[in-house]
Structures are given as C-alpha cells and as structure tokens.
Amino acid sequence: MSNSSEARSLHVHNAQPTAALSREAEGTAVQRSRPDRPTVSVIVPAMNEAKNLPFVLPFIPDWVDEVVLVDGHSKDDTVAVARALLPHIRVVVQPGKGKGDALRAGFSAATGDIIVMIDSDGSTDPREIGSFVRQLRSGAEFVKGSRYMQGAGSNDISHIRSWGNSGITWAVRVLFGGRYSDLCYGYAAFWRVLLPVLDLDSDGFEIETLMGIRALKAKLRIFEVHSMEHARIHGSSNLNAVRDGWRIFKLILRERFLRGSPNRRRVEQVRQSLARFWDGPFARGVSTH
Fold first, then answer.
1. If one looks up domain 18-275 in CATH, what number appears?
2. What are the start and end residues of every segment in region (Disordered) (predicted)?
C-alpha cells in the first residue's frame, strides 16, 4: 500500500509519527499531566467475536476510563469473554442491525468526554488510542485514523476495497473540500459533546464516511493520524464491498444535495466548552490552514 507523508489539506491536519516514546506511554503522559483531563470512553461494536476479543480488549490502555462493548446479538460467548477479560466493561445490547446502529448505541451509552471507536476483530490496534486522544487534547475536534500516511499501512485491505476507498475519498474531497486521505476506516475519535452536531443517522458501514462528511460540513478542527490496520484474526468480515460501497455513494449524494450544514452557533458554543481540556492548539501536528 502506498503511504502519504505530507499534510495536504485545508481543513484536515495530518499528525506526524512520533519516535522513541511509545504511543501508549505518550498517551498516558498526556492523560495524567493535567487535573482537568477529559475522561475517555472506548466503543467496541462486536458480533460473534469471542475468539478475537482476547487480542483486543487487554491492549486497551489502562488510563481509559470506560470501555463499552456493543453486542450485536452474538450467538457465541462474546459477552462472557469480554467480561472475563475486563470485569468492569459495560455491555450494551444493540437495538437493531448494522455497524452504524451499533456505534450509535455505544455513543449514546458513553459517559466520557472523549469517544474513541475501534473494531473488535483485531484490525485496529488499541495501543494507538493515545495518539488519537493526544490530538484532541491539542485542539482537534475530530480525529480520523489513516492507513495512507507515513508510518501507516494495512495488512488487510483488498484491491477492490482500496480502489473503492480511493474513489469515495476523492468524491468527498471534490464535493465537500478538505483533504482526507482515508475515509473508509473505522478508527476515529471525537468529543462527545459534538454528537448533536454530527447528528449521526446511518445504520451500516457508511457511518464512518458520514462522520467525516458531517465534521467537514460543521467546519470542525479535523486531524488525521497514522494507523496500521491488521488482518482480522478469526472469522470473516460482514463488509460487502459492492453493496456497502453503493450505500456510501448514495449517502455522499444525499449529504451534498439534500442536507444542509450544522448550526454554526452550536458548533462555536461546543468549541468554547472544550477549551479547558486543550493543552495547546495542534501542539504536535502540522496545521495546513
């Protein structure tokens, strides 16, 4: 997979890789350095992932305040395994179907100031959570993982998924601006108070693209951080490249031509409420405004 090492955006900022200090250690230092540190909730949607959870949950940093598992009516021991691995984990039963539905249920249940979403199949590395939180503490409002930056990559993406992702990312850049490099990747983080601004209403995999578009339309401070996607350890994905790709393109057209932009006054009010958590504007990133 090709990587991009430059921040090439008017609205999206690309955080550069950090040497020497591990992501987890650096994230811990940021989290514990200030008395007004934000609390962090990690959302993990899961359906029949009992065999994969041992490769995910134990690697969530211990400074994370809350882990919410959203169970999609699993037929295996997903919930039992999760509770055995993390006795204090919160379990929410998904009300409907689809990844978007599961994530929205998790977001509604979360209590942390910061929400981080990861996958339960081992494809997203929980040890990278610190780099997402660090950018939010530095002034970002929405942080997206990218597999196309220096130090990033994927051991899992197929050629057809890569082509589809490139097409979707290009379409969003043309129609909405910004310079995302990777929209179809389920690793992201944002401030919980922004949920009414994002106003998420998708049930499927397209929710990942929807979040990125709504963040652009709201003119949020957006950062991308490098991330390494690993191959699913056990089982197979529910993603259908053709079906879900078509749903994403329909969503893009709907957002461009049928739906307006969020209320700017609400965005500014939220931004002011977050100022107490920030260590400094984009202290570790590259601004491209």
1. 3.90.550.10
2. 1-36
